[in-house]
Amino acid sequence: MDARLNYFASPTAGQILKHFMAAGKALKGSPLPAVTQELVALRVSQINGCAACIDMHTKDATAAGETSVRLNLVAAWREATVFTEAERAALALAEEGTRVADAAGGVGDEVWAHAAMHYDEEQLTALVTLVAFMNAANRLNIITRQPAGGYEPGRFH
């Protein structure tokens, strides 16, 4: 499958994505734990069906030492026993923040309160921004049919 647009060959995409990826880099340096960031990025991408992002975040998480058991269970995290309470709170917030069209109320108070029990304000800021960032990245890739499978870990870091 060929991508509809080549982001690397387009001057317009180059200008826009330079700033977009700078936001992603800032998130990597945030106080939200790196493993939580990868799990959230993976779950948002699974929900949206973004193969390119699933490929990237699975490989980056593996390169950072994440286990295949945990990565394979992200899609069914509610039934899995391998995630911490903090990670579960982040995954719940990520799901509700991604499925805003499915849940008229957006992120519920209970989900927010659970996340706030585990993360401070700076971490919550990073978590919310990460969910929004990943939803945008997923849409960029899905609309233009960016292919999956060829990502090399750390390519965008």
UniProtKB/TrEMBL annotation:
<protein>
    <submittedName>
        <fullName>Carboxymuconolactone decarboxylase family protein</fullName>
    </submittedName>
</protein>
<dbReference type="InterPro" id="IPR004675">
    <property type="entry name" value="AhpD_core"/>
</dbReference>
<dbReference type="InterPro" id="IPR029032">
    <property type="entry name" value="AhpD-like"/>
</dbReference>
<dbReference type="InterPro" id="IPR003779">
    <property type="entry name" value="CMD-like"/>
</dbReference>
<dbReference type="Pfam" id="PF02627">
    <property type="entry name" value="CMD"/>
</dbReference>
<feature type="domain" description="Carboxymuconolactone decarboxylase-like">
    <location>
        <begin position="17"/>
        <end position="96"/>
    </location>
</feature>
